[in-house]
Specification:
Distance between the termini: 53 Å
CATH topology of the largest domain: Rossmann fold
Structural class: alpha/beta
Largest sheet: 6 strands, mixed
Number of strands: 17
Number of domains: 3
Number of helices: 14
CATH class of the largest domain: Alpha Beta
């Protein structure tokens, strides 16, 4: 029974705009109980594929088949802002057209499965990023789906949360498809990769653990490059001979025609080598000129047994100071950062006139209804003009065609890059970074780490990505669990 195909794409073609395909006669199948990673370059259409599986989008041609009307649950990347005022119980009730009488019992089981222990009368907007990540996963599990779709499920999770999620997925006997940039996480439980190529619009199906498949894909790319290099040499050689013989008479002209036909055949045999995603340009976050103490944190509120307890800290930051705020999910890290950027910033003193550049994990600093152009312009400090703004945005892959789009239309990754572009334009004296690698393509992260290390102002950082933290020059740590 486990070998039964539960999901099949048969020659599926889909496009948002005429002649701009996302999928072109793409085919694959997954058996019941399979656990696969969905890979692809930026903009390849991974989220679109999830929407096709859910039936929210319909293919232009071809067929998406779900065996025996199998149920589908999705853990999305982020909680929608309009849901922040709901209680946890009200949020879970949204999973059903008719709320079942045993809702709280089902909620309790789903929360237990993802190690999520919070009173159900708590507001969703009051949860930490890690707690919201668990909420999203529990919401997907609530209906016991046959196919579970996970979109960046490790964002905001601490290591304990990631370990629990891995253990859960290994034991989970249903079909799972995961989009994630966390290679170590994926290698623990996935048994294959669906590779969606942004250039060919096809889906390739690879079987094997994540690291082995990635290595196989890289070897194939190298073989394609070598084949093309050989063909290019032959083509150039033929073209030179065609040019030489074409000016001769009689049989030489016939030979030139034959060589020209052979050249065209060689050009047709050139392989479409998949190209890697573009990486953002190296950038600098200019800092405001400041002398003396930039910020002093006297007290913080730590969450213990779901209650806030005030603790004495005594941390002072000047230029080039780097403070890492650490601790398990739900202890109050994001709450501390939000407090620092609020007008009151209780328990802390920030030097008058300091511009605070805040990267929020839920992009709370962005006005989703603004156009991208206006969002950038609103962050622009003295010394920049619109031409500078456009150039800086282009370095973050925010091209001219995106400028007129509303921020809400951007992908989560694009919102992250927009947030960094705004920090550059702002010239802050204090950077407050709350999970700045969430949703960001792994190729951009070394560039971002270098820019943060070169920043001349003060930095307060929260991040659960250990490799990123290791790349940052941190000179002090505030561990909320040890207060």
């Amino acid at each position: 029974m486990s070998e039964e195909v539960i999901l099949r794409f048969d020659n599926v073609t889909f496009e948002y705009l005429e002649k701009k395909p996302v999928l072109d006669e793409a085919s694959f199948s997954l058996r019941r109980g399979a656990k696969f990673t969905l890979m692809g370059q930026n903009g390849a259409g991974k989220s679109t594929l999830f929407n096709l599986i859910r039936g929210e989008l319909k293919p232009k041609s071809g067929r998406v088949s779900i065996t025996n009307n199998a149920t589908i649950g999705t853990a999305k990347q982020a909680v929608a802002r309009e849901d922040f005022d709901l209680t946890i119980e009200q949020y879970f009730a949204k999973a059903f057209e008719v709320v079942p009488p045993n809702l709280l019992s089902r909620v309790s089981k789903a929360m237990e499965a993802v190690n999520f222990d919070v009173p159900v009368d708590r507001k969703v907007g009051d949860l930490s990023g890690g707690q919201q990540a668990r909420l999203l996963l529990a919401f997907a599990l609530l209906q016991n789906p046959d196919i579970l779709l996970l979109d960046e499920p490790t964002n905001n999770l601490d290591q304990a949360g990631i370990d629990h999620l891995i253990q859960f997925l290994i034991m989970y006997d249903k079909t799972v498809i995961v989009i994630s940039h966390d290679a170590d996480f994926l290698n623990c439980f996935t048994e294959g990769v669906l590779y969606l190529d942004v250039y060919t619009h096809k889906i390739e199906n690879y079987v094997g653990d994540y690291f082995s498949v990635v290595e196989e894909i890289e070897k194939r790319i190298e073989r394609e490059r070598m084949k093309n290099a050989q063909l290019e040499k032959q083509i150039q050689d033929r073209k030179e001979k065609v040019n030489f013989f074409a000016h001769k008479g009689g049989k030489m002209r016939k030979l030139a025609k034959k060589l020209k036909d052979e050249t065209e055949e060689l050009e047709e045999n050139m392989v479409d080598v998949r190209r890697e995603d573009k990486t953002i340009r190296p950038f600098e976050i200019p800092s405001q000129e400041i002398v003396g103490e930039i910020v002093r944190i006297d007290t913080v509120k730590v969450i213990v047994n779901h209650a806030a307890v005030e603790k004495t800290v005594g941390k002072t930051l000047r230029k080039r100071s780097r403070l890492l705020v650490s601790g398990p999910n739900g202890m109050g890290k994001s709450t501390l950062l939000r407090n620092l950027v609020s007008p009151e910033h209780k328990g802390a003193v920030i030097l008058d006139g300091v511009r605070v550049g805040y990267y929020s994990q839920d992009f709370a600093t962005l006005d989703f209804q603004q156009t991208v152009f206006d969002s950038l312009k609103s962050a622009m400090s003295d010394g920049y003009d619109v031409q500078d703004m456009r150039s800086i945005a282009a370095g973050f892959l925010i091209t001219g065609e995106l400028m007129g789009h509303p921020v809400t239309a951007l992908s989560e990754g694009q919102k992250g890059l927009l947030s960094f572009a705004r920090l550059v334009l702002m010239k802050p004296g204090l950077l407050i970074l709350d999970e700045p690698t969430n949703h960001i393509n792994f190729r951009h992260i070394p560039v971002i780490a270098e820019a943060i290390n070169n920043f001349e102002g003060a930095i307060i950082l929260v991040s659960h990505m250990s490799d990123f933290v290791k790349a940052i020059r941190v000179d002090d740590e505030l561990d909320l669990a040890k207060l």
